[in-house]
Amino acid sequence: MARFIIRGGRPIGGMFTPLGNKNAVLPMLAACLLTDEPVVLENVPQILDVENMLHLLADLGVSVHRKHHAVEICAAGLSSTTLDADLCLRVRGAILMAGPLAARHGKAVLYSPGGDVIGRRRLDTHFDGLAQLGIRMAWREGAFHLARKKAFRGADILLDEASVTATESLLMAATLAPGRTVIVNAACEPHVQDLGALLTRMGARISGLGTNRIEVEGVSALKGARHRVAPDYIEVGSFLAASAATGGTLTVTERPDPLTLKVMQRAFERLGVKWVLEKDELVLPARQTLCVKKDLGGAIPKLEDGIWPAIPSDLLSVALVLATQTKGNILFFEKLFESRLYFVDRLLEMGATLVQCDPHRVVVSGPAKLRAQMITSPDIRAGMALMIAALCAKGTTTIEKAEMVDRGYERIEERLRALGAEISREK
User: Fold this and answer.
1) Do 149 and 196 sit in the same domain of this protein?
2) Where are the alpha helices (DSSP H) in 271-394?
């Protein structure tokens, strides 16, 4: 296990270039199983979750060629439809391969996927939707066994929850299902839209991306394509939070699309953070006066996550740490995952002033003077949030389980160091 050693008290600022959206790349890698022709993805982050997905593909006989932030994948030599059990445990994105494998190759065997321990993450929506397309699932000998029936065809599907990964799984499978598929209560997050853009380049016929009603007209075959992954707005938000909390100035060289920026602003402006847009760049001025914007009548405001275009759950952890450095009181309401906010115990140890009301709600009162501690990273986003806390804290903080952050952020210590952080990694 590696650890981060961070000495706080230095402003984080400079030029920052975001990499591709992790949550878009993982389903795109699975989508490469839908064709025998090469698919080239650009702006792919070099993170552990991506590496584990590539290992899964290679283990199936898929050709994988990586060069820096580009990867070329060709599934023409696929030799197996059974995923490795150990690799499945390393990355939740393994579940995304079920639909493409069963839809194109008739069957798939996979094991329970791993991922962050942030609460129960159902698979029912995935398998219920696939069953309506004619892909049946059976649980045998500790594995999910999927088989495509003769009646594999498009269907009208009403999801019981707006699950991102279930929407992506069904979207991929439906591209090859004869007839029309309509997915209602579909997720419409930016990464779902980016996956849809890749599938369209591959020859899929999709309409309704960006809404909660997606229609797919099945085609007989998909082709290869080249696609650049959109910038990761969660990564952008994480670095903006680090810069704002430490009083630095940050220039983001490739900003998210206008709607995504508005969603992010909803969270950051509530904490008094403002930025300006210059050409294609986003500029965060230094030494901003961080102050919670109260609700009408002076009431304590609430920052809550939800399905898009609500504030993403993945941004809540870093926003909570930013709130510890912001004047005023604010309630954080995590509605999607019951264990997402458990990391606040570490913030209490560091001197944050907050009250965890229950697993879903935390009241933060700032600003607080954080102090260095020995802490452990419980998941990707909490790990990044704790790194931001360490950058604000007085003294030297040690964060165990650095690999958790590596799953979602490429070379995080190098990139923070380039922005002024005093940080190192130890084995």
Assistant:
1) yes
2) 313-323, 344-349, 380-392
- Round to whole Å and give the CA distance between 150 and 171: 19
Residue stretches of the chain with pLDDT short of 50:
116-120
The whole-angstrom separation of Cα 293 and Cα 279 is 28
Structure tokens at 275: 């930025």
Tokens representing 274? 């403002």
Say how far apart CA 341 and CA 118 lie, in whole Å. Answer: 8
Residues 311, 338 within the same domain: yes
Q: Could you give the CA distance from residue 402 to residue 391 in angstroms, rounded to a whole number?
A: 15
- Annotated catalytic residues are 116
- Among candidates 50, 52, 107, 51, which has minimal Cα distance to 78? 107
Q: Which helix (H) or strand (E) holds 355?
A: strand 354-358
Give the DSSP letter of residue 291: B
Q: Is residue 121 part of a domain?
A: yes
User: How far is it, in rounded angstroms, from Cα 11 to Cα 1?
Assistant: 28
Tell me how far apart the alpha carbons of residues 207 and 170 are, in angstroms, rounded to a whole number.
14
Measure the CA–CA gap between 13 and 419, rounded to whole angstroms. Answer: 5
Element housing 53 (H / E): helix 48-59
DSSP string, 98-142: HHHHHHHHSEEEE-------SS----HHHHHHHHHHTEEEEEETT
The identity of residue 97, as a single letter, is M
Structural domain harbouring 235: 3-18+231-426
